[in-house]
Amino acid sequence: SQQGEEDPQALSIQEGENATMNCSYKTSINNLQWYRQNSGRGLVHLILIRSNEREKHSGRLRVTLDTSKKSSSLLITASRAADTASYFCAATYSGSARQLTFGSGTQLTVLP
Amino acid sequence: GAVVSQHPSWVICKSGTSVKIECRSLDFQATTMFWYRQFPKQSLMLMATSNEGSKATYEQGVEKDKFLINHASLTLSTLTVTSAHPEDSSFYICSAYGGGGTDTQYFGPGTRLTVL
Known about the structure:
The complex is a heterodimer.
Chain A: E1 5-7, E2 10-14, E3 19-24, E4 29-37, E5 43-50, E6 55-58, E7 61-66, E8 71-76, E9 85-93, E10 101-102, E11 106-111
Parallel strand pairs in A: 2-11
Antiparallel strand pairs in A: 1-3, 3-8, 4-5, 4-9, 6-7, 7-8, 9-10, 9-11
Chain B: E1 4-7, E2 10-13, E3 19-25, E4 32-38, E5 44-51, E6 57-58, E7 67-73, E8 76-81, E9 90-97, E10 105-107, E11 111-115
Parallel strand pairs in B: 2-11
Antiparallel strand pairs in B: 1-3, 3-8, 4-5, 4-9, 5-6, 7-8, 9-10, 9-11
């Protein structure tokens, strides 16, 4: 299986703190995407980072990519209770016909 | 961003019946759509790639005769779970790439299937 790993599996922080989630993948990628999923809902696209990029920002989100380590991280700054959700990374592997392979996910709980 | 809808959002059926789930791209055309299954507290697993006007491509271990996929138009793909059994109970989610060649994949809200 090409499914990547994410850590931590679960993360609980106080409102206002930063949350960092890590994702590892298997082989070379075209891009890596991060999604958020609230319980029982569909996925919301957060950010896409291409294999030739090292860092991207979007509002309170910062994503980094280290292709030498085959890993990515998602940082949420100044977290809010509304950020409570599951976060998934998803890789588009080279030669995969643009299919996404999801990581195992991180359940983030932000306490008010 | 592009919008993908699914219908129904939830369905309960008896064992042995068939259930059809629709996935629509609302404001763009999608030549390719993807179907995923997600069990509680787990990640998404790709079931199949749905191609408009041709046969779907199924992932290893997914029974094509059990999960029938039809992609009859550029905005609609359907997944039919045939002769459903309790082990088919799951959250089914579809997705599609937004129009214009974007690499961003957009997801529907999902369909919760419960087979009694």
